[in-house]
Specification:
Two copies of one chain form a homodimer.
Chain A: H1 3-7, H2 17-31, H3 38-44, H4 49-55, H5 59-71, H6 83-100, H7 102-110, H8 115-130, H9 135-162, H10 169-181, H11 189-199, H12 203-220
Helix pairs in contact in A: 2-5, 3-4, 5-7, 5-8, 6-7, 6-8, 6-9, 6-12, 7-9, 8-9, 9-12, 10-11
The first copy, chain A, binds a DNA duplex (19 and 19 nucleotides) through residues 14-15, 37-39, 42, 47-51, 53-55, 58-59.
Chain lengths: 226, 226
DNA sequence: ACCTGAACACCGTTCAAGT
DNA sequence: ACCTGAACACCGTTCAAGT
């Protein structure tokens, strides 16, 4: 009841894996991948660096857990939409999650058969099943979608990392388009040619267009059923 | 002519950007991404760490240059094959290059508009043009192919990194398949279901199947021309 | 112009010592 | 059982000093 009690906050909450991972996510979001340091983390948690090792085996596990925490949050497409719409919604969920937490894009590419990727793969796979893709082709279809999503994720993460914190999206695309226009016409004719299409360009729409390309390929190969 | 001349080797060759990048590639291939150290590199080049900074601005540039050196090597598909075959050949070239140098997979994902990626994008794009894809759709088509290739590249690099140096491919896939079979049936029905398809599984064939899916999607959307 | 190598400011991780 | 924080073995990078 004393005013001091009010202010004690969570300062004395016991350390836990949960709190550590939460603080790691915050740190990654705020200061980026280079900012996640055992020293910075322990300072934020008001302990010594060694304390963290009691709850977590090392930095690799910490990054994996942080990634998993974000991926577990991704919504999308479990309603009564068509399989195509469900896949689009899920893919967009991954896209937006990585947009909000660029480090997830980098991290996802680093954890092969691990749980964050498996979560997404499973969800894609169920929708592929719902598309009535023949069983022998389901793995290929789900893998292709997954790889595409990961590829875009990685690129977007890299782009965001390169970006000055203050430049916005269109400004950045404009700079890239200009750079492409100045390329050697003999070496880069195609890239120069599409540079202008880059200028007014919607990342999310472009991403979805790629998904649709793959979906078309998947359903084209499917034997037609009632 | 004296025997000692013979043995002098290249030990006294002056330091150059070229030699540095070459040694970096060797180091990356031999001891992996964690093994590329300015100390290890300078030891291999018989100098001090500071000498390298005279020719290269830092580690980031070094990694980019090493990646570029490998990517510049990728052959493929400039013969008189069909555009589809040319794209498959090029994609396979990237796939094999990353198989031989796993660190390239990681690195490619980190350099967004940089030259190694641009090289590949340009080559894909020309083949997309040859496919007679309408101009407005060319960027989307080339980007989708590029993202897919990068996605697979990243995953493969991650897999190789996780692998014990002595386990071979099929052994690894078997382990993954077994792990997937032991997943919770309620949470991972699809993944469990396709686990067996993983067991006798050809990475390259699967990769190409994904390329074909996208190619089908691209040509399906194309207006038919004589 | 180019190289040397000690020194600086960091890392992740460990571990004896505390409670 | 859990936390502390100094210490260890590394990093990338800089820079005065050499040739």
């Amino acid at each position: 009841m004393a005013p001091s009690t009010r202010r004690a906050d969570r300062r004395q909450e016991p350390l836990s894996r949960e709190r550590i991972v939460g603080a790691a996510v915050e740190l990654l979001d705020t200061v980026g991948e280079g900012g996640l340091t055992f020293r910075a983390l322990s300072e934020r948690l008001a302990t010594g660096p060694g304390a963290i090792y009691w709850h977590v085996t090392g930095k690799a596990e910490l990054l994996a857990a942080a990634t998993d925490a974000v991926v577990a949050t991704i919504p999308g497409g479990d309603s009564d939409a068509t399989p195509q719409e469900a896949i689009r919604a899920l893919a967009l969920g991954v896209f937006d999650a990585i947009d909000a937490h660029p480090w997830v894009g980098t991290q996802l590419a680093r954890t092969p058969g691990q749980s964050p990727m498996l979560r997404i793969f499973e969800r894609i796979g169920r929708h592929v099943q719902a598309l009535r893709v023949p069983e022998a082709a389901q793995f290929t279809a789900a893998s292709a979608l997954m790889s595409y999503v990961l590829g875009v994720a990685g690129q977007n993460a890299a782009n965001t990392r390169t970006l000055q914190p203050n430049t916005d999206r269109t400004e950045f695309l404009d700079a890239v388009a200009t750079a492409w226009t100045e390329l050697d016409p003999d070496q880069y004719p195609f890239t120069r040619n599409v540079a202008d299409q880059l200028r007014n360009h919607d990342d999310r729409a472009e991403f979805l267009a790629g998904i649709d390309l793959i979906l078309t390929g998947i359903t084209a190969g499917r034997q037609s059923t009632g």
